[in-house]
Amino acid sequence: MTALNNQITLTDGRTLGFAEYGDPKGWPVMYFHGWPSSRFEARMVAAAALKLHLRIIAPDRPGFGRSDFQPDRRLVDWPADVIELAGALELDRFSILGLSGGGPYAVVCAWKIPQRLHAVGIVSSQAPSDAPDVLDNMRPLNRRLLQIGRRAPWLFRLISWRVVQGLRSDPDDFFAQTLNDLPQPDQDVMARAEIRGHLQVAALESFRQGSRAAAQENAIYARPWGFDLADITRQVHLWHGELDINNPPGMGRYLASAIPDCSARFYADEGHISLSVNQMEEILRTLSSATGR
Questions:
Q1: N or C: which end of the chain has fewer CB within 10 A?
Q2: What domains appear along the chain, each with residue ranges and CATH number?
Q3: Burial 265-278 (b: 16+ CB within 10 A, else e)
């Protein structure tokens, strides 16, 4: 099953867009995309989901893809949209998986709606940027973007305009230029045309409505998250690559130590992108078995 352009209307009148992949009768897993990205990112897990009989539901966050922008949005607002989407799909309980920039959105759901969740997974996740040592060994570009988000979020919209122009004019060249400093495992994965194509399409779709949402979300990442990780009562499964320079392993270690019940696994030979590609079947299998199925 693949349904790419689904939409629901939320109680405040906003539209929430989402895609579905995998087995339509399978166990539901909500997939929270990275940044800047969109519901199309979940295409990368479709084959593994079908094999494991999982139903992947991938919503666009506000302002990305087909979801309406939400002014003054905070990280802690996201679980309300998730609950409305679950209600529209008649889901009582479900699992969630957040990759990279989607990780904080899975973590806030573990904090705010634990009673609705069977399993929570985060892969190559961001951590609170004000936590000690989490920015050590971070890619200089990512560090600068967080600084811009903290001090001058308006500037990111100008940067995003250049990103969109590069993506639209020559996506292969743009990706080659922006990813050439990544570790070898990430380079190897991005050399695969189907993976590169999925990420290019997902990135382009994220800017369907312009750059406002990407700038807003960059500012969200740069601020305190608005809740205490120590108050999370749900178990969280964490996977992180030791070679990750987008969200360095210090972020994963901080989350693993700060979340009371965190089952963490670190991979010596994986980077940021390679982990979610090479280990996805294991990740989804863990989320499936954690439901008690």
A1: C
A2: 2-289 (3.40.50.1820)
A3: ebbeebbbbbbbbb
